[in-house]
Amino acid sequence: MAADRPTDEFGNERVDQLGDERVDHRFKALPPDAEGLTVAELAAERRNLFDGGFTTPVLALSAESVEHNLALLETYAERHGLAFAPHGKTSMAPQLFVRQLERGAWGITAAVPHQVRVYRAHGIRRIFLANEVVDAVALRWLAGELDADPEFRFVAYVDSVRGAELMDKALRDAGASRPLDVVVELGAGDGARTGARTEADCAAIADAVAAAPTLRLVGVAGYEGEVPQADGDRVRAWLRRLTALAADFDKAERFAATDEIIISAGGSAWFDAVADVFAEIPELSLPVCKLLRSGAYVSHDDGHYRHLTPFNRVPDEGTLQPAFRLWAQVVSRPSGEQAFVNAGKRDAAYDLDLPEAQVVRDARTGEIRPATGITVSGLSDQHGWVRTAPEAELEVGDWIGLGLSHPCTSFDKWQLIPLVEADGTVTDYIRTFF
Ligand SMILES: Cc1ncc(COP(=O)(O)O)c(C=O)c1O
């Protein structure tokens, strides 16, 4: 990819170049007879997922469901006065980032510096790193990016005095000319993940930032998804601590060097609570950017997030649609109770729940029917263990369409994912960078 080609506000030109990549053995499931075509050429052929030469297992991403989910969170954020920096670690797919930005996203969230590099290589101009970064090499690279591109906006967490000192030293050593914007991370409670545990710790960190000429304090942030024994009350109570911290910092004039205060929280399990509590933020001395960071919503799922989605509590505000279906083929049917498919841990998310057998595509007729009496009972590296009840109709050669649980660990097993319309037409291929 030519890094010097111009890019529009959303990174479109850089992302368009993904279509120039050649299709070959690196990409699981893509048609062997497409070898040597570019991705754009293959997409233009509009092949059918079922008889267009794809091999199994093949992960399909529903074009309609992704579109629906993108639109739903755009309107949700708008309706609740939230800015949106969807977490990009979910998909690591610049084509989806562009679509999120076109739908009004403020920027894209990252978890680690490598992800920031991927985003920058694809023209992303606003990045929120929801983590502390104290790696001197990464900070030197970031300083270079900030110096080279006045339009690059970058914000990172700081969650310790030592962290602020390490950041400052690395940035000074790198000769950084623009200060790096930081938000103090408030931990989500005792025993939670990262983040300072008390308001006093947060104030000490803010003091350390104020003493560091290479850093600029622009807000506060945290992740309610890690609130211990999370329920609506505990999550709201923690979010109120976060917003009170912002108000206290503002009163103490700790945001004097910025013209906007960032207050950020929100994954895909509690954005209703974030919307409620952020709506209560009193007027501060500067405009407030209330930044939501949901990522998993983009594909949603058939397990973990199906249970956790806030839309179960606020159905009037919409419903997300699960966008993944993993198609695996029955390669063994050794008994009436057992079958094995050719997809395993290499292909399906398995960290939270096993895949869910949803439909069977009959190898003889091409007909698709519900996967009655069929359950996935385990996964080996390259095999799925399937249990069948007496009423299950299944034979070697049939395809099983599986629903998955956990978007992040579904995307990361596939580097080029067919984007498929409801009738099976593949309209594009989504490139991921893990
Ligand atoms: C700090 C942080 N922010 C935002 C998110 C996004 O949450 P979700 O994956 O539920 O959309 C995550 C997910 O792990 C996270 O760790």
Care to describe what's here?
The chain has about 425 residues and is α/β, with parallel strands linked by helices. It has a domain at about 125-295: Alanine racemase (TIM Barrel), CATH 3.20.20. It is built from twelve helices and 18 strands. Strands 1, 10, 11, 12, 13, 14, 15, 16, 17 and 18 form a ten-stranded mixed beta sheet that branches. Strands 2-9-8-7-6-5-4-3 form an eight-stranded parallel beta sheet. The radius of gyration is 23 Å and the shape is globular. Mean pLDDT is about 95; it is low at about 1-5. Pyridoxal-5'-phosphate binds next to loops. Pyridoxal-5'-phosphate binds near residues 90, 130, 223, 268 and 293. Keywords: Isomerase. Its EC number is 5.1.1.1. This is Alanine racemase.
Rg, nearest Å: 23 Å
Indicate the CATH topology of the domain at 125-294.
TIM Barrel
Form type: globular
Q: Percent of residues in beta strands?
A: 15-25%
List of distinct ligands in this structure: pyridoxal-5'-phosphate
Could you give the topology of this structure?
Layout: H1 12-16, H2 39-44, E1 58-62, H3 63-79, E2 83-84, H4 94-102, E3 108-110, H5 113-121, E4 126-132, H6 136-148, E5 153-158, H7 161-173, E6 180-185, H8 199-210, E7 215-221, H9 232-251, E8 261-265, H10 271-279, E9 288-292, H11 304-308, E10 324-332, E11 338-341, E12 356-361, E13 368-370, E14 374-379, E15 384-388, E16 399-403, H12 408-411, E17 416-420, E18 426-431
Parallel strand pairs: 1-17, 2-9, 3-4, 4-5, 5-6, 6-7, 7-8, 8-9
Antiparallel strand pairs: 1-10, 10-11, 10-16, 11-15, 12-13, 12-16, 14-15, 17-18
Helix pairs in contact: 6-7, 7-8, 9-10
EC number: 5.1.1.1
Protein name: Alanine racemase
Keywords: Isomerase
